[in-house]
Amino acid sequence: MLQLDRISKVYKVGVLGGKDLTAVRDVSFEVAPGEVVSLIGESGSGKTTIGKMVLRLTSVSGGTITLDGVDVSTVKGGALKGYYRKVQGVFQDPFSSYNPIFKVDRVFAMLREAYFPGVGGAEWRHKIGASLEAVRLDPHQVLGKYPHQLSGGQLQRLLIARALLLDIRLLVADEIISMLDASTRIDVLNLLADLKARGLGILFITHDLSLGNYVSEKTVILRRGAVVEMGATERVFGNPLHSYTRKLLASVPQLHRRWEPFEAEPEVPDGQALVQVEDDHLVAGGVRG
Ligand SMILES: Nc1ncnc2c1ncn2[C@@H]1O[C@H](COP(=O)(O)OP(=O)(O)O)[C@@H](O)[C@H]1O
Ligand SMILES: [Mg+2]
Questions:
Q1: What domains, with CATH codes, occur in the chain?
Q2: pLDDT in the model for residue 261
Q3: Among all ligands shown, which has an atom nearest to the Cα of 93?
Q4: Which of 12, 22, 141, 234 shows a CA-CA span of 20 to 30 A to 250?
Q5: Are 227 and 27 in contact (CB under 8 A)?
């Protein structure tokens, strides 16, 4: 469904854009329907930039992104509206997606104006009810409220409900769990599992390895804009082969294991080609000797 083929992103930075910053280099992976793919890396590794390129919020400097075979960068004007019917993003800070002076219903009203001008009042209310039910929100508890009257988790789920009204096929979820408290986290994670069961593809962006492990069947590990290891989540987590992946895993607090001093491994340099080491498991530079 979604395919990234050797995409890169170069930002112009510095005085008058005189310097280049390569935020993403040569990244390739796919997201299939009903599949959750985790994009994992430290802050600054290029995760959000990749999400923004998929969402057409920033241009692609090299390579191609295709959705069902159509080059996303060629989608313009009216067709872009069609693209956003299929692909939507939800971001880390749900409060920033709402205007504090309007009731939260406004996100639905704006959607109706843009995409469903012909839909009558009763049908529209029914549609909203169904999408709120899908994200396990009680309409009476959220509609008619201002953003500050709702929790981060409720606002996050409202945004997902809004995306569901469009019958989207791909959700880009950028650090959507990070800001939520522990109890809401589980709800939103379970919600993602529901969406997946409905056949949605999800690009799940996180800096938190344990979240990635929990929700996804495929994992892409990013370091300084490049993929260092990727494949089936159980292979990447069960048999991590790149020194960076091992380092990330070692820094996750493990309750069931005693703390062990982390053995220093020689750092694999950037720019190594991905090598297939087993079925559905690729590692930059291949297996270390
Ligand atoms: N609009 C921008 N202009 C210039 N540099 C940017 C811009 N957005 C991000 N960057 C830089 O690109 C790199 C990757 O950023 P980002 O994609 O936000 O990483 P992440 O989401 O993994 O934390 C960082 O070095 C960041 O400073
Ligand atoms: Mg980010």
A1: 2-284 (3.40.50.300)
A2: 52
A3: 2
A4: 22
A5: yes
